[in-house]
């Protein structure tokens, strides 16, 4: 729920801001939207809003949509870093991609669903979750890949490795380029892009943890040792929680980086029906400045 609300906050803030037409916030909005689709379906499954039998029978479809949404989110993260690279290197393709960013995101979504079509056809998505203590039951939270590690490796691990390794590499190079060419960018534009390279690092770290957890879950011998040992099980739960809450870290950096650029406080005051109060305060502030300026 916390992760879902974090992604919703980021997405709504981006689309409601006056900077929503800038490519950075368009990508961030769609990335958050893809995450919300996954997390929303996980909530439906976890809270059993629908009948359990219906959820289990539709788990393959639910898992297909969830994982396709995450791959779309990963690709959006990479797209931001790649677009920043084009800008810093002053390449002509930057303008072309900026004007067609929605088309690029649409193609990303199509690619994600096509990529996972094989696991879906093979009924590769099943109820998955955490192993509970002493293995009395398995706590199902979502629909994920089954026990076929080859399917998991090719269709889930491989795209993450490619996307995040390249994303982190480009992000590091972007940071070096930004420090060299800082004076060539307008202040506002640079404020929007200068810290983008942090996001692939956060996602790469979190999903590396997730990969370790999932491969452990595929080995029944290791799982049995973990769930019957207090210390190992405690660590197992801890790293699961760290992964599940990584979107809070993303939210923290989003607010830290874009609070002034987007005026986040005013966006949410306006959304929560406080627009008149905000306008009154702004008018009072302007009046105060005029009085002081003419005195």
From TrEMBL:
Keywords: Membrane, Transmembrane, Transmembrane helix
Transmembrane segments: 27-49, 61-84, 104-130, 151-172, 233-255
Name the UniProt record assigns to this protein: Uncharacterized protein
Organism name: Paramecium pentaurelia
């Amino acid at each position: 729920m916390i992760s879902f609300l974090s992604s919703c906050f980021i997405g709504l803030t981006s689309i409601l801001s006056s900077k929503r037409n800038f490519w950075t916030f368009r990508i961030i909005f769609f990335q958050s939207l893809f995450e919300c689709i996954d997390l929303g379906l996980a909530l439906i499954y976890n809270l059993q809003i629908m009948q359990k039998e219906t959820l289990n029978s539709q788990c393959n479809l639910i898992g297909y949509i969830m994982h396709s949404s995450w791959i779309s989110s990963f690709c959006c993260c990479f797209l931001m870093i790649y677009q920043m690279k084009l800008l810093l290197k002053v390449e002509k393709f930057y303008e072309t991609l900026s004007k067609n960013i929605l088309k690029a995101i649409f193609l990303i979504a199509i690619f994600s669903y096509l990529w996972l079509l094989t696991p879906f056809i093979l009924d590769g998505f099943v109820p998955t979750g955490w192993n509970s203590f002493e293995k009395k039951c398995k706590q199902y939270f979502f629909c994920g890949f089954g026990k076929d590690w080859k399917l998991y490796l090719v269709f889930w691990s491989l795209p993450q490795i490619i996307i995040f390794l390249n994303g982190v590499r480009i992000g590091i190079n972007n940071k070096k380029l930004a420090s060299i060419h800082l004076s060539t960018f307008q202040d506002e534009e640079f404020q929007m892009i200068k810290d983008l390279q942090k996001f692939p690092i956060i996602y790469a770290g979190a999903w590396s943890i997730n990969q370790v957890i999932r491969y452990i879950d595929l080995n029944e011998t290791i799982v049995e040792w973990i769930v019957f040992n207090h210390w190992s099980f405690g660590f197992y739960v801890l790293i699961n929680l760290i992964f599940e809450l990584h979107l809070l870290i993303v939210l923290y950096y989003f607010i830290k980086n874009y609070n002034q650029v987007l005026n986040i406080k005013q966006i949410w005051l306006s959304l929560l029906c406080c627009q008149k109060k905000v306008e009154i305060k702004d008018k009072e502030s302007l009046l105060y400045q005029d009085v002081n300026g003419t005195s």
